[in-house]
Amino acid sequence: MKRIACALCFSVLVTAIFLSVQGKVAAESVADFYKKKPVTLVVTYGPGGGTDTAARIMASEWRNVTGGRMIIRNITGAGGIRGMNHMFRAKPDGRTLGYTDSASSLLGAVFFETPGIQFDARKFVYLAINAVVPNGIGISPRLSANSIQDLQKIEGLKFGSHAVDSQAACSALTIEIFGLKNARIVTGFGGMEEEGLALARGEIDAYSNSMHSMTDHIDKKFVKRVVLVYSDKRSSWFPDTPLPTELAELTPEQKRMFTIVASLKSAKPIFAPPGLSRDKTDFLRDAFSKIFNAKGYNEKMKVRFPIMGSDFYLSPAEWSKTVEEALSIPRTERDAFINVVKKYAM
Amino acid sequence: MGEGIVAAAFIQAFQNLLDPGLLFFMFLGIFIGLAVGLLPAIGGLVPMAMVLPYMFLLKPLQGLPLIITISAVGYQGGSMTAILLNIPGTEPNAATLIDGFPMTRKGEAARAIGAALVSSTLGGFLAVILALVMVPILLHIVMMITSAEMVFVVLLGISFISVLAERSMIKGLISGMLGLLISLIGYQAVTGIPRFTFGTMFLYDGLGLVPVIVGLFAVPEAIVLASTGTTIAQVETKLAGMQQVLQGVKDVFRHWWLFLRSMLIGYVVGIIPGIGGAVAPFVSYGHAKTSSKNPEKFGTGCVEGVIAPESANNAVLGGSLLTTLAIGLPGSAGMAILLGAFVLQGLVPGPRMLTDHLDLSLTLLLVGALTNIIAGGICFGIIPHISKIARVPARILFPLILVIALTGTFFYRQEIGDVVIAVGFSLVGLILRNFGYSRPALLLGFVLGTLFEKYLFISLGVGGPLFFFRPISMALIVIIISVIWVGILQGRRAKKA
Fold it and tell me: Distances in Å between the alpha carbon of B326 and those of A9, A50, B80, B173?
């Protein structure tokens, strides 16, 4: 019996040593792989924008962390959908990674059924998420109002948006919850800068945007102040700005819409095509985690994304859960919400 | 801001210009910009995007001058291929080929390039100087021009369709309307409906400008050249290369008032974010034709038809550079890349650029001005040699044009679909050419159609059906009616003649 127990212990020990050595060899080989082979980071927007800039900052840190090279490739078109489709079809060899903005090309696009989508957001392998911030409502410097209560007294407010998208959804829900009289959403603006300028000119009275953009627009004096943050907790960057749930008693229907809007926040996931091997996934997650903690990365990112490192951090697992939850909202609820947005958008 | 601070910033900016590192990267930018500008259809965006990754390795006074220089000199190289081969090097050079290429056919290539370079160089230089003067009132101008005014600025451009018609005004209008129709291809964000995309993602963002231009102009001319078996220049001129160049230079000073007006048009269009550099040269061209005593000469190789668009296209940069720096609003794709370069350098363009980094802002504006002069000087040296291309036999030039034009089209977005579009538009261009329909009018309709629709939707949403009851809008409506009226009168006069 004793002999059997000894043999068992010995074999367990040998197996454990063997497995740990194997694991180390595997880890080393993945590290070698990334040291030798360049990685292409597909950015779904054009050069010079926020997502592209963040990608280039990550690429500059990639060498310090892995010893390898990261190349940026901009695959643009159809509001980022072409790049997303490309990523879905890409070989999951760990050398092609994607980077996008969820509110417009990932969850936002899927939720609002942007035509041409050929990807399943649930099947991507999410490696890291940065620049996560909720959306909010900003108001024009030409308005005398300073709060959502002041807005309730004004009739015929105009909100600006690019299209019937996640930003418009935020505006629509604000109109709906706070009963803003005869308010409507003007669509067609070319992007957040155009919306900001329209706000400064007084063409529109309010808009919904990510807290990043609004911080920049407050600096440029396009936005007077942020009157509402769409999140389940207050932002430390705007501690005095209330949440909709603090100001109004939401109906069950509005609560469901609030959940949807909160999930369509601004977040920039780094992801791989479906089917990436476990060892490469682990290595890449670890590498991006190191990049996010690097001093150089944080200093550079803060120039473009001043409210980085705030309290809205999401791990890949949490992000995958967000994607899963957002996309499992029943179709009837989704359609009902889209109809509410369309009711106010023109 | 105190005068002393501004003066000190100016002194610092001039000192910065003497920095060897800055000068090295400025000359490197000039070299890259000119080389790529000479490669037809590729344009300035590709090299700007290519140098973006190096921003981390360079200091702000090295990286930013490099990228500004590339953006500034691309148009100068681009005018040469528009004039010589009917292929614009960059999108804003498209209007130059309307009269530039006929001048080449008349054996006046060097004169056209000389006029184009002086207009472009001085236009760019003066626009940057103007930008320095305009800083205090820039914000007021940008705030005054709302979406309602944009509708009429674009409509003013569209009204020049009637002016661009070469022979028949009706044919010109039909061409323009065809251009407007083509501009509707793509995903419409307001309605959420993809139009004429046939289910392909490639057409969601509409047709690219480069494949349309290459198809409409370059390939049909190459085919005609091959079928005649001659050279592009069909007339022998008495003047030697350098003499022609000097004549082109004199032409600009002879038409200094036209140059100045066109430069101002380009500058104002550059200041306003959202219109883009491709519009200003067409508006300037249309303005030159309507205000000319001899409008019938336009389109047949008239030097004013080269001076006007070239004065405007480089002036756009001065205006848009200022808006990008002072307000943080990129008015074009090129300026968006520049904005990204600033961020990668740890700087945020916007109102603080002119307070916290005034010396750097002034340095960059001065780099823009100086670059124009240096690049212009370099180009002058090569005009007599490069203009000899017009004498190259068709059997050599035809395959060369075809390869260069279609390769350039591919590199524009690295899409094979663009090459297919260019080939399709070659057929359209050939038909239009043979039946006397105006290709520039089609191009203008195509360029402006999307902008018109966009601003019309926004204006209707913001102001309702009576959105145009605003002083600036009303003034623009009066100008548009005048332009159309002048077009009709010119058409009648031409018919009588």
Answer: 73, 19, 32, 40
